[in-house]
Amino acid sequence: MLVTFTSSETGELMMFAEPARILLQAVGKETLGRGSFTREEMAAAAQTLRQSLARAEAPPSEESDEEGGSEPVVAIGQRAWPFIDMLERTAKGGPDANIVWRAAADF
Fold first, then answer.
1. In whole angstroms, what is the distance from residue 100 CA to residue 40 CA?
2. Which of 15, 79, 88, 104 has its CA 20 to 30 A from that of 27?
3. How far apart are alpha carbons 45 and 29 in whole angstroms?
4. Which is nearest to 75 in space by CA: 86, 56, 88, 60?
């Protein structure tokens, strides 16, 4: 399932439900089919994610595919940066700045 984040100040951001769930729960949001961030919540959420990533940074790992080669694994940190950027840029918007998300169901 895909989750679409829409900002009043930037473009859309889409991600799969699992990384979206991890990121939203890290900042204290429920993973409902619809939700939002107010302008006041965004800077704190971005800072929380930055701190979480700084604590968890490790070199990217690799896993073997069926043919014996290796394929890089995309870590949650790599998925978080576009979301952090959206939060920070939207937080600098006007008084009506907001981010909403939509998914087909709760995740």
1. 14
2. 104
3. 10
4. 60
* Token pair of 38 as six digits: 């107010």
Can you tell me the distance from the alpha carbon of 30 to that of 18, in angstroms, rounded to the nearest whole number?
A: 13
Joined together, the tokens standing for residue 62 give 């690799």
85 in Cβ contact with 23 (< 8 Å): no
Q: Scanning the structure block, which residue is given the tokens 């859309």? A: 12
Answer yes or no: are the C-beta atoms of 24 and 31 closer than 8 Å: yes
* Bridge partners, 15 (sequence order): 3
| pTM given for the model | 0.82
Instruction: Report whether pLDDT(23) > 60.
Output: yes
- Calpha distance 107→96 (Å, rounded): 27
Angle between helices 39-56 and 76-91 (to 10 degrees): 150
CA 6/CA 86 separation, integer angstroms: 9
pLDDT tens-digit series, residues 29-81:
999 999 999 999 999 999 999 999 888 764 444 444 455 555 555 688 889 99
